[in-house]
Design brief:
The protein is mainly α and 325 residues long. It folds into 2 domains: 8-194, Orthogonal Bundle (Cytochrome Bc1 Complex, Chain D, domain 2), CATH 1.10.760.10; 200-316, Orthogonal Bundle (Cytochrome Bc1 Complex, Chain D, domain 2). It is 50% helix and 0% strand. It has 15 helices and no strands. Helix 4 (78-88) crosses helix 8 (164-176), helix 6 (137-145) crosses helix 8 and helix 11 (218-228) crosses helix 15. Mean pLDDT is 80; it is low at 1-12, 29-64 and 187-204. The chain binds heme C (2 copies). Residues 29, 33, 85, 88-89, 91-93, 103-105, 107, 110, 115-116, 118, 123-124, 126-127, 144, 154-158, 161, 170 line the site of one heme C.
Length: 325
């Protein structure tokens, strides 16, 4: 990606190629899935009364409130969850850190991450409609019970995990796919009501992070950047443009004006003067709200400290880093 000199061409070529690959993998996944489940369908048709009752009682429950399985998650068998994911999900999802997106997005770090926002993956509008906040236990429980009920029209062609114990095992396993797993359910409830609420209450603009620059850690910003931004941006001095422009010296430099990169008119419309830490804070919080129609296909960094870390890192990649305030 970093060898592409023209962002436009890269932008047009890649999706086509991806569609072809995705089409192939999807057919393969579908065939696999049908193969795995054909026995279930056959069993179902042989014994009609039981499945019909089960289906009827599952649907309204899903539409209303799905019973919590937090108790089961606390005593889940992570190894069984891993085996289940390997068997039923891996045709469409990789789970390793930095793993490629397939038919579905890579799932490393998904618990606690923003919903349906994995970098570099193009989600359906069906799921974007229901994406609110981060993946917690209750939402993941509902999604994996029945993806189509959770997000009608989702492209996840998987019927859901109807067995509560298996679903708990899978969620407990997903939780471990992280260098910093989120707290187990009981502890999370308290955290959830304490931390993210103020950020949401701040309204459309990004919360001020001036106070956080003093405690910003450049190396943390760097590893976040490498994980979430480097697929589209190089940041070495004189580095090539990829899907997005090279970012060396971007802070304090003119907005959306990197030589040799063809910015969208959406971005040019909001370009005024140079990138200040304040403007960068707004942009990285929610690029699509900051510049509606921007081609930066990234949902933004909602965590204030992480945003401060990333801005401190951007600031350091420059001939003349400025004082952040
Ligand atoms: C046939 C392919 C397929 C299978 C099998 C599949 N998924 Fe998915 N999954 C997808 C697709 C496609 C999406 C994106 C949904 C959309 O954009 O509508 C997705 C999305 C997800 C997401 C949301 C990720 C995010 O970044 O927010 C999670 C979590 C997930 N799948 C978990 C699983 C688990 C666990 C299994 C196995 C029990 C599974 N999936 C089986 C295709 C699949
Ligand atoms: C999926 C690709 C993609 C990802 C991921 C991505 N960007 Fe971008 N970025 C772009 C594109 C494309 C543009 C140009 C926007 C336009 O023209 O609308 C851009 C523009 C920018 C700009 C403005 C550059 C300038 O010269 O004014 C900054 C700053 C930026 N991105 C930072 C980041 C950071 C930091 C991350 C990670 C947290 C990130 N981007 C993730 C594609 C991406």
């Amino acid at each position: 990606m970093s060898t592409q000199h023209n962002g436009e061409a890269g932008h047009k070529r890649d999706p086509l190629l991806f569609n072809k690959i995705a089409g192939g993998v999807l057919s393969a996944g579908l065939v696999l899935w049908i193969g795995v489940h054909i026995a279930d369908f056959l069993t179902a048709s042989k014994a009609p009364p039981k499945p019909v009752v089960a289906a009827a009682s599952t649907a309204p429950a899903a539409a209303a409130a799905i019973p919590s399985i937090n108790g089961l998650i606390l005593k889940a068998d992570v190894k069984k969850g891993a085996a289940f994911v390997q068997q039923q999900c891996s045709a469409c999802h990789s789970v390793n850190q930095g793993g490629a997106n397939g038919v579905g997005p890579n799932l490393y770090g998904v618990m606690g991450a923003p919903m349906f926002a994995h970098a570099g993956y193009h989600f359906s509008s069906a799921v974007e409609k229901v994406a609110k906040g981060n993946w917690g236990y209750q939402k993941m429980n509902a999604w994996l019970l029945d993806p189509q009920t959770f997000a009608s029209g989702t492209r996840m062609g998987y019927p859901g995990i109807k067995n509560d114990v298996q679903r708990a095992d899978v969620i407990a396993y997903l939780r471990t796919l992280s260098a910093n797993p989120i707290a187990l359910p009981s502890a999370t409830a308290a955290v959830a009501s304490a931390a993210p609420a103020p950020a949401v209450a701040a309204g459309d603009g990004a919360p001020s992070i001036k106070a956080l620059y003093a405690s910003a850690v450049i190396t943390k910003g760097q590893s976040f950047f490498e994980q979430q931004c480097s697929a589209c941006h190089s940041i070495n001095k004189g580095g090539a443009a990829g899907v997005g422009p090279n970012l060396y010296g971007v802070l304090q430099g003119p907005m959306f004006a990197h030589p040799g990169y063809d910015f969208s008119s959406a971005a040019k419309k909001i370009a005024s003067g140079n990138w200040t830490p304040h403007a960068m804070n707004q942009w990285l919080y929610d690029p699509m709200k900051d510049a509606p129609g921007t081609r930066m296909g990234y949902p933004g960094i909602k965590n204030n400290q992480v945003r401060a870390d990333v801005i401190a890192y951007l600031n350091a990649q420059s001939d003349a880093p400025a004082a952040l305030k």
